[in-house]
Structures are given as C-alpha cells and as structure tokens.
Sequence to fold (780 residues):
Amino acid sequence: MSEHVIREEPVRVPLIYDPRVRSIFFQVLLVALLAMGIWWIVDNTVENLRRSNISTGFAFLRGRAGFDISDRLIDYTSDSSYGRALLVGIANTLAVAAAGIVTATILGFLVGIGRLSQNWLIRKLAMIYVEVFRNIPPLLVILFWYQGVLAVLPNVRDSLSLPLGSYLNNRGFYFPKLVWEPGSGLILAGFVAAVVLSWYVARRARARQMATGERFPVFLTSVCLIIGLPLLGYLVSGMPVSVDYPQKGTFNLSGGTNIKPEFLSLYLALSFYTASFIAEIVRAGIMGVPKGQTEAYSALGMSSNDGLRLVVIPQAMRIIIPPLTSQYLNLTKNSSLAVAIGYPDLYAVGGTILNQTGQAIEVVVIFMTVYLSISILTSLFMNWFNTKMALKER
Amino acid sequence: MQEHDISWVRTEMALAETAPRSQAGLGAWVRKNLFATPFDSVLTIIALLAVASFLPRILDWLFFSAVWTGTDRTACLTTEQGGQLPAGWSGACWPFVSGRFGQFMFGRYPMDERWRVVLTGILFILLLAPLLIPRAPFKKLNAILFFGVFPFVAFLLLVGGAFGLRYVETPLWGGLMVTLVISYVGIVVSLPLGIILALGRRSHMPIVKLLSVIFIETVRGVPLVTVLFMASFMLPLFVPPGTSFDKLLRALIGVALFASAYMAEVVRGGLQAIPKGQYEGADSLGLGYWPKMGLIIMPQALKLVIPGIVNTFIGMFKDTTLVLIISMFDLLGVVKQNISGDPTWATPQTAKTGYIFAAAIFWVFCFGMSRYSQYMERRLDTGHKR
Fold:
C-alpha cells in the first residue's frame, strides 16, 4: 500500500495555481507597469521642461539669490548664492525645531504629570489644556499668535515694558544681551571644568555606592560646581561681562537682542501643540507601569521620591520614548508651516527660489533630502537613547 | 462540643455608622483633592489665582464686552481708532463672523446655487448618522450608499454641468465645504489604499514589499507641505503638455497619498497583532490570499486599530488647513483671507475673533471624532485584548 503511494507521480499543479509562479508573474507585471508609468512621466516632464525653457540640474544653486532674508543665523546678503540661502533656511528650520522640542518636552512632561496629580484642580486644568490644543490645527494656532496676538501689540513707541529691561512690541521681543569682553574665556573654562568634574564625581560616587553602599549627594555637588566654578572665573578675571540693555528710541529699539514675531509665533504654536501630545504620551507611560511596582518599592522601604526616580520613571521612559520620537519628528516637519507667516525656514526660502528659477524638481528633491535626513538622524539618535534606556534583561 | 460560656450573641447586623465628619462631605473632598499636602495647597492656590484672573477676562472678551451687531468695522473700533466704543475697549467682534458666515461656509460659491451644497451636506449627514449609530439597521446598504453612491451624487451636485445644474468651477469653492470635501475624499481613498500598502509591506513578494516600504517611508519622512507642494508644482509637469489639472484635484491627490501612508502604518500595527494561528487557521481551511485577508485577518486587525484609524482621520482633518499654503481657501484660508485682505472689517480685534471662531469649528469636529472613537473602542472591546 505505502509503496504504491511513494511510487505515485507527484501531483502536477497547473502553473497558474503555483504560488511561486504567480508571485513572480505579479511582480514582473508590477515592475513593468511601474516602469511604463515612470517612462511616461519622465517623457512628459522632459517635454514640459523643454517647452518652458527650464534647464535641469543643480547648477542654479551657484546663481545670485537677489532676495533678502531678515531672520538669519549665518552670514547672508542678497548677493549670496541660492545655495547659501538654502543653508540659511536649513539653519532656521533646525533652530525653531530645536527650541520647540525643548519647550514642548518640558511643558508636555509638566502637563502629563499634572493630569495624574491627586489635586483635582490641576488635573482638570491639565485635561482642558490637552483637549483644547490637541483638537485645533497647528496652523491655526500659528496664525492666531501671529495675526491675533503679536501683530496687535503696541508699536515701538508704546512698547510694553517687561521685567529685566526687556520690551515687547509688534516687532518682536527685545531683551538684554550679555556682552562677553576679553578675559571672559575664563568663565567658559570654569564651566567646562565644572562639567568634567561633575561627571567624574558622579562616576566615583557610583563606584563607591556599588562597592560600599554609601551614597554621596551627586546632584547637589554638581549644581554647586556648575554654578560655582564659572562664578569664580567671573570674579577672578575681573567681571568681564556687561549687559547691553535695549534702549527705547523714537522709531526703533537699539541694542540688546530681539526675537522676531515670526519666530516667536511659530515657536509658541509648535511648542503648545506638540506639548499636548507629549502630555498624553507621558500620562500613558506612567500609567503603563503596573501598580505592583509602586507597592514593591514601598515594601522595600524606599521613599516615594526614590521610588519614582529609581523604579517608576525608568520603566515609564521605556514606554514613552518611541512615541516621543515620532512627536519630535512631527514637530520638525510641522516647522514647515513657517511659510504661512513668512518665517524664512527651508520651505519658505525654497519656495522663493522656485518662484524665481522655476526649478521645481530640484527644489522638491532638496526639500525631501533635507527633511528625510533630519528624520533619519533624529530617529537614529532616539533609537540609541531608547536602547540605552531599554530594560537590560539578565 | 463547645464548652464556652456564651452569654450574649448578636443576632442581627449592626447598622453601618455614618462616615466620620472628617471623611465625608464637601470639606473632606476639598481636603483630599485640593489641600492634601502643603505642596498641593500651594499648587491649588496658584491655580485658583490664575483661573480667577484669566477666566473673567476671557469670558468678558468673548461675551460681555463683545460687540454683537454691526455692519462694518466702525462697530468694533474705539474712539481713538475712529469708532464709538470707549478707549481701551477690548472684546470680540462677532458681527465680522455673522457678516462673513456665508463665505466661511461656502467660499465664493454662487449665492443662488448654495442650496446644492446644503443638500449635499444634508445627504451626507443622513447617510452618515445611521452608519455611526450601532443599532440602526441596513448597515451594508447604508455603507454602499455612503462610500459608493454618495461620492458621485455629491460630485454631480457640487460641480454641476449636467441635468440643468450650472457648472461651478472649483476655484469658486471655499470655506468649511472645501475642508469637508478634502477630508471626505481623503478618508474614502486613504483607508483602502492604506490597507493595500500595509498588505504590500507584509507581503512575501520582495519587490512589492520594497516598493511599499519606499513609498510609506518617503511620504512619512517629509512634511505634508512638501507633498502638497509636489502635487501642486510637479503633477502638472508629469502629464502631457496642454492638459490642465484642477487645483483642488491636485490637493486631493496630495492629501490622499499622504494620509494613506500613515494609514498603512496603523493597519500594519493591527496586522502584526494578529496571532500567527489565525493565518494558519485560514490556510488550513483552504482559503486563498484575498478571502483569508478579507474574512479572517482584516476584520480582527481593523477592530484592533480603530483608535489609530480615527486618530489618522483627526490628523488629516487638521492637516486640510495646509492647503492654504498652496493658496486654496478652506475654512482657515477663507478666514485668513477675510482678515488680511478685506478692509471692511479691519480692526485690531478681527483676527482674534475670526481665528477663535475657526478654532471652535475645528475643535468640535475633532473632539467629536475622538469621543466617538473612544465610544466605539469600548463597544467593540470583546475582552480579547491581552
């Protein structure tokens, strides 16, 4: 019986029902369709570009830009090249994204912890904040700050005076600038030394705690060092730092530094909007730590501060970091909304260049490359941080 | 035998005592929820002070000091700005909203054709409401009508050009209507496209997988502004010379492609959560790929990711505002245009009023969607979650 079965011919499946043949067929079909589509698009594009006399390639980046950029972090004049203008834009994008990420993180953690507070009022206020900002488009918030709040501030002559000699008016926020005179390098040296020393102290304290169980107030020591050493440097070198206060003139404020309303509204809107999402992530992260962990550290006799710091937060961070990463990426991408209020970020500068040169494809390629690289770099960094924080299973 | 001398045994339950005064009532609630620790008390006092100083001002601005009637900007100007109101006045300028309400809803859609938009809206609500209410009957027919027939009817009604309806070109469209059209098309296109992309990403065919990954990651890595920009500047380059491409259509393509990449990732999350046994079970029943996915895997996977899907919808609804950057006029675009381009209502309070009105509308839609998704999540929770 069994011999008969073995000698039987293998069942011949018609080719059309063979999964491997089918899979190859569909993939070949897909590639063919795609190739035809791309060929059609490329053909049309070349024809369209030829008709409108636009040359392709990135040579236009060396041409003279001819437009001015008011808000810039690196040197730029209207005589600089298009490439330089794009660099200014990239720097501005990074600046607003970095500032926004820092503020949104701080605000988001505060609100997220507030939502779990035992204080009824704080809990409700945090909830209202989250529900309001999460459900309103960020672009609307940006325009609200720009046109609704900052644009209707008094003009320069009637600037609002704020503490510490700063002013607020419809041209932005003016605040005193620290002027570093010669000899101030000592302060920087003090700061660097303090950071290095704190790191060393932390290492030693940890090693000692591991060996003997004795603890050392690392945090307090570090704070003292980081404040103390630069202060010492400041006094030793003869107080070489002076403050340049903004002076009120008839038409303008002179001196000091200022932040333009475009940057301010973009930065405020992005931080407030993203903070509401980060708050929810933080709340979910802390709630995701099982209650048993809290009971366990109490049973071990740890104080609630130590317990939070050593038991709850490290575990909550594992839940928090991956979605936090995507929020950071979202904030960076949302910074492209700057174009709506004329803050010269990468997108706005690129748009101007496109209007001047008509190099649509090249400009879009540059946009994509820059945003994709920023995304990839942020993800890489956050993944590294995530692995560092991840549970080390032994 | 028990030898105890039991002199007295309680035969009925003692009545529960009322809670001690310190543990019940308003006082206890306040102590527990507002003044539990010294730090809490400080927080409460600061928060109370903040609320007490801001809330009356906000309410005053919104309602008590606000102007409610008027025909142009002079109604909302103080004496020093050339109006009637006392110096230093500040309040909402609501006649701006009521005077421009038609524009905020329909844009520049011709006055005597606006009933078509209203009719489309009514049809939309009539078809959507029974879909959303779980107990309403005829779900299948309803869904076919809503996703299959309604788009054509709506297209006919809104665009016109047949059956005696006047042709209304899309540059005249605007306001909330455009916001809803873009969101609806985005949702209807992105869900199936997202499912296909998610299946492609989990496919065993290397080329299909590679293409899906490239598409999803590229679109997710760039801002929507860039995608819209591409749709608006590069799509016209891709078609044969001389073909004109409707601007609204370009925006629709951009938004739908963008949303489908995000949708694909949400659906993929659901697919990954389905245990391998379900796939094997379907295979052992002899189901082919599509019946397996359609009958066994997708119903489970989609149910798992309802919150994610609705979140993507909410995100897309908010993202429709970005079409103002390629100079189209959705609700926010029309409000902005009326604020910065129209001298009839140019007052210092106009911008705030207009944006708060727009924010309220967006808020109601987004909040409603998120609440509905929470409700559905609770309803569909069959207790199988691990």
User: Anything to note?
Assistant: The two ends of chain B are 52 Å apart (CA to CA). The first helix of chain B runs from residue 25 to 33. The domain at 174-380 of chain B is CATH 1.10.3720.10 (MetI-like fold).
